[in-house]
Design goal:
Oligomer: single chain
Mean pLDDT: 87
Helix content: 55-70%
Shape: elongated
Low-confidence stretches: none
Order of helices and strands: HHHHHH
Structural class: mainly alpha
Number of helices: 6
Distance between the termini: 38 Å
Length: about 140
């Protein structure tokens, strides 16, 4: 989200009237107009609004990290492979499809969620991802 939108949301959240809002802008940046501000000045305004009690809320749904270390390892290896360019699509759906090849190959109606794998199911997936990661690192370094 852009800084102008965040400032406007903060203004609403804090219930600042026009005069108070403009006074805050002038005090923090020396100008009363968001359009006249640099990006750095807008960030300074956001920091001031946070000090006044504005809470930035994350949008979208985030999934909690698994308590199982081998599941976290799958996600970490998948992300790292995507970063290295070994995997074109680093999405969650692509990870599900990858896991399905190991767990339910040939069963079209089965959905495989990597967060629900047993250790025995996860082990070959982890090994394959480690090999892919090693190939990606070798390609980057060599």
């Amino acid at each position: 989200m852009n800084t102008t939108a965040i400032i406007n949301i903060a203004r609403q959240q804090l219930g600042l009237d026009e005069d108070t809002y403009r006074a805050l802008l002038v005090r923090v940046t020396g100008t009363a107009s968001l359009r006249m501000m640099s990006e750095r000045q807008k960030i300074d305004v956001i920091e001031e609004l946070k000090a006044k009690g504005f809470k930035v809320k994350k949008s979208g749904r985030t999934l909690p990290a698994s308590v199982k270390p081998y599941i976290r390892l799958i996600h970490a290896l998948w992300s790292n492979c995507a970063r290295l360019g070994v995997i074109e699509n680093g999405s969650r759906e692509a990870l599900r499809a990858f896991c399905k090849r190991f767990v339910a190959h040939g069963h079209d109606g089965v959905v495989v969620d990597p967060d629900l794998l047993s250790y025995a199911q996860a082990t070959p997936i982890i090994e394959a991802l480690k090999k892919m990661e090693a190939r990606g690192k070798a390609a980057r370094n060599g």
